[in-house]
């Protein structure tokens, strides 16, 4: 309260009845008369009993309402958790699909296609409806090769070394060495057939 304001209190004096007749007409305190007090107490007890009965009748309904509210809250929470889990699964599948697409497109130009998806932001290549932007991936890969040319496959300009030809040498033309297992077995069989066994 502000300091400048003063509070004034108005005291009221109890009014005295002017005459004895007016005193008899004024309502009397029910607690002053024991019979009237007893009647008032009985009346209040009946009202209290009536309200207790009503409360006990309504308690099961209140309990059911609380249970339904809890069940609905639990159901809503369960549905929210399922929605979150489904969204996470969808996002994981989209990320795997984008990684596979990046690897497939990078395999022709990159030494290690896994490097390509490690350097690219994969979320950028998924549209709002979940489609994969392959043209965007191609552009991203080309840009990545410009920025980091060491990720590209090495260009092999050297002449190729000749491959070994298995038909050349002693085993390819039928001349076997005596230590070769097939030659040992063949000699054994020839000897067994010659002896007539």
Summarize the structure.
The protein has five helices and no strands.
Detail the poorly predicted runs. Answer: 1-14
Task: Report the portion of residues in β strands.
Answer: under 5%
Number of strands: 0
Tell me the number of helical segments per DSSP (H or I, 4 or more residues long).
5
Strand-pairing-aware structural class? mainly alpha
Please, what is the average pLDDT? 75
Major beta sheet, specifics? Answer: none
Order of helices and strands: HHHHH
Please tell me how large the radius of gyration is: 51 Å
**Roughly how much helix do the residues carry, as a percent range?**
55-70%
- The end-to-end distance, rounded to whole angstroms, is 132 Å
Spatial shape: elongated
Give the oligomeric state. single chain
SSE layout and pairing:
Layout: H1 20-25, H2 34-106, H3 113-119, H4 134-147, H5 181-195
Describe this protein's structure.
Helices cover 58% and strands 0% of the residues. α2 crosses α3 (113-119) and α2 packs across α4. With 197 residues, the chain is an all-alpha fold. The longest helix is centred in the middle third of the chain and has 73 residues, at 34-106. It has helices at 20-25, 34-106, 113-119, 134-147, 181-195. The radius of gyration is 51 Å and the shape is elongated.
